Amino acid sequence: MDNDSLKARILEIVPDVQQEENKQYLTLVVPAGRLHDLAGELRNTPDLGFDFLFCLSGVDYGKQLAVVYHLNSTAHKHSIVIKVKTDDRVNPAFDTVCDIWRTAEFHERETYDMFGIRFNNHPDLRRIFLDEEWKGYPLRKDYADEVNIVEF
């Protein structure tokens, strides 16, 4: 399926997605409240068949925090990027997708550890690289480390 067909098919499932420019992948921004339902549809709908989450990343855009999901269908050989964003920098949270793609479990923990983004219904959401006593989230643009003098 080409990118135009993929976009049309996904718009049937979630009509309020927005497309972002990206030369390599079809990139769609999804309302946070629709993420989990869309993820399930992307995985379980036979003509879409996105069975492989090959990358999940946190992003700090300054005013917004986001999570970016790179998906692939091994059967149909097509890929897509899904993004969810929030303006809430104090308590950012999205629904987990680790019940849909098992690889998300580790990546969501890493995103929580580095960006402070929580994943609702995650089975084991805790820091994975940093100590539990660590203050702050080192990959956020507003992070400052007075001991190591790391500033962005």
Topology diagram in text:
Blueprint: H1 3-13, E1 18-20, E2 26-29, H2 35-44, E3 52-60, E4 65-73, E5 78-86, E6 93-95, H3 104-115, E7 118-120, E8 144-145, E9 150-151
Parallel strand pairs: 2-5, 6-7
Antiparallel strand pairs: 1-2, 3-4, 4-5, 8-9
Strand content: 25-35%
- The CATH architecture category equals 2-Layer Sandwich
The H-and-E topology, N to C, reads as: HEEHEEEEHEEE
Classified in CATH, the superfamily is NADH:ubiquinone oxidoreductase Nqo5 subunit
The assigned structural class equals alpha/beta
Pick out the low-confidence regions. Answer: none
**If you average the pLDDT, what whole number results?**
94
Counted up, domains total: 1
Largest sheet report: 5 strands, mixed
What CATH first level would be assigned? Alpha Beta
Quote the distance from N terminus to C terminus: 41 Å
The number of helical segments is: 3
Shape: elongated
Question: What is the spatial order of strands in the main beta sheet?
Answer: 1-2-5-4-3
- What is the CATH T-level topology? Beta Polymerase, domain 2
Taking Cα atoms only, what radius of gyration do you get, to the nearest Å?
16 Å
Helix content: 10-25%
Total beta strands? 9
Structural commentary:
It is elongated, with a radius of gyration of 16 Å. 22% of the residues lie in helices and 29% in strands. The longest helix has 12 residues, at 104-115. The protein starts with a helix and ends with a strand. The chain has a single domain, classed as NADH:ubiquinone oxidoreductase Nqo5 subunit (Beta Polymerase, domain 2, 2-Layer Sandwich), CATH 3.30.460. The protein is of the alpha/beta class and 152 residues long. The strands form 3 sheets. It has a 5-stranded mixed β-sheet with strand order 1-2-5-4-3.
